[in-house]
Amino acid sequence: MNGQSVLSPKKQHRLFASVVIIDGLNNYTSPPTLYSLLLSLLDMPELNISGDRLVLIEGTPARVKYKDIFDLKGFYESLYWWLSEQGWKDAIDGDQFVDHFETYYGERISLNGMKEIWIQWRLFKKPPQAPFIGYYLDLDWHIIGLENTEVIRGGHKIKTNKGEMEITIRAFLDKQYQKEFQKQSILKDIEKLFTNRVYKKELEMRKKELYQEVYVLQNFLKQWFKLKRYMPYEEVKSFYPSTAYPSHLKEG
Q: Fewer CB within 10 Å, N side or C side of the chain?
C-alpha cells in the first residue's frame, strides 16, 4: 500500500472494498492504483482531522513479522475479538458497526496460486475519564507467499496456511478539544496556552497510556505467533488459542 493512514492530516476517504488481482500474462495493475481508482469512484464517509490535532505516538510505527505455518482465518478472528475485548471500535462508525475494522482488502494471486494480500484496519477508542481526547490505531497487514498446507498435530492432519506476514502498527492521539476552541475566534488564541500548560500533564499521561496499548498489542501478536519475547513477569496463557505452527517448536 502507499503507507498513508486514513488518519493522516490530509483528508482521506474510508474504503470498505475488496480488490482481487489475477497475475497473468496481461498488464498488471498494482493495488495502490486500483485503490486510488476506487476512492475516486465511490461515495464514502470521511475522516477529516486537521494535522495539528493528531499526535503520532513515539515508538510507533511498531512491526511484528512472522514467516512460517499459521492459520490466517484463525489469526484474523483471534485478533479481531481480542481488539474488541480491549475496547477498540471502528474508527468511523463506532458503536453502529463495530465489525468494520477492515477498511481495505487487496489480493494478488500469482500463476502458481500463491497470494499476496494487503489489509487495513482502522480503529478508535475513547479513553476513560478523558472527554477531550481520542485514540486511533492503524493496522496495516502485508502477507506474501501465502499458500495452503497441512500439518500433523495429535495424530490428526490439519489444513492451514504457510507464508510471511508483517503487521505495522501506528497509534495517534487526537486532541479533540481543539474542535471547541476553533468554534469561537476568541478562544483560538488561548488554545496553545491550554495545550502547553493547563492540559500538558494530561496529554503526556495519555501518550504513555496509548504507547502501553501498542506494547500490549505487539506482545499479543508475538504470543500468538509463538515468537521469542522477554517478559519481566510470568505470563498468563492467552484466552485466544494460537494456530501458528513455527517449525522451530516441537509438537505439543
A: C
Which residue, chain included where needed, has cell 479533540? Answer: 176
What is the tens place of the pLDDT at every residue in 32-48?
444 444 444 443 334 66
CA separation for the pair 28, 22 (Å, rounded): 8
The set of cell numbers assigned to 225 is 505467533
Q: Distances from the Cα of 48 to the Cαs of 11, 111, 196, 205, 209, in angstroms?
A: 5, 40, 24, 25, 24
Residues of the chain where predicted confidence (pLDDT) is lower than 70 = 1-48, 50-51, 92-99, 180-198, 231-238, 250-252
Run of H or E residues at 108: strand 102-109
Closest CA to 166 of 61, 65, 60: 65
- Look up the pTM and report it: 0.77
Spatial neighbors of 60 by CB under 8 A, at least 6 apart, are 169, 170, 171, 211, 214
Count the neighbouring beta carbons within 10 Å of the beta carbon of residue 161: 20
